[in-house]
Give the backbone structure.
Amino acid sequence: MKAVPRTAPLGMFGGTFDPVHYGHLRTAFEVMQALQLRELRFIPAGDPPHRDPPRVEALRRLELVRAAVADQPGFVVDDREVRRQGPSYSVLTLSELRAELPEVPLCLVMGMDAFLGLPTWHRWHELLELAHIVVAPRPGWVAPTTGEIGALLAERRSFDAAELHVALAGRVFVQPVTQLEISSTELRDLLAAGLDPRYLVPDPVRALLHATRMYSVPRPTR
Ligand code: ATP
């Protein structure tokens, strides 16, 4: 791997990771390499605000992400959203990271599906004051030219990755990645049916899923 410049941005990849899979991991890896990030932090949501409650509790999902990234230099697990009380709003996480790292460019990484839902996020206009947004295209999800996201792209899109190293925040960059149409939803269904997730998740994740049967046992009552 090439040496990463001292001024390199820090990447943040948030998600429910219910469970984590190769679609997440390969995307994060390609973004980290292509943009020469100093580090890519996986930030599992404790209480994701924009969707149904996760199938598996936060500490379990965190354990799976830790197992998934353990052998990859530059991949780091950040458990702040699991430790924090209340909804896992990205704007709060970014504010904390900005306060901790005032001089470091931050890149919030997300799939195109998540990016298109941005206007529903809590205080979403503040996100680009705190970080850049890096979008990974996904099949079936097309960036619009109209509406709030169209306007955001017209105003903020950068076509030069070097700009992400110069400014601390404020740009939107689309980074093509290998398309692996794996989803956690599909994995949950597969595991509930007693099938083997081999080749969809790393072996340490598969081993944990197998040992704990966390997606096979009935959903805990809340
Ligand atoms: P679910 O099926 O439960 O909605 P998911 O597989 O989409 O889950 P999330 O944890 O919701 O996973 O996604 C976290 C982030 O990863 C989001 O930004 C999402 O766009 C992105 N992502 C999810 N799956 C893929 C994939 N196969 N390739 C690229 N990015 C992905």
About this structure: The chain is about 35% helix and 15% strand. The chain has a mean pLDDT of 94. The pocket of adenosine-5'-triphosphate is lined by residues 15-18, 23-24, 27, 110-111, 113-114, 136, 138, 180-185 (CB under 6 Å). Residues 112 and 137 are 5 Å apart (CA to CA).
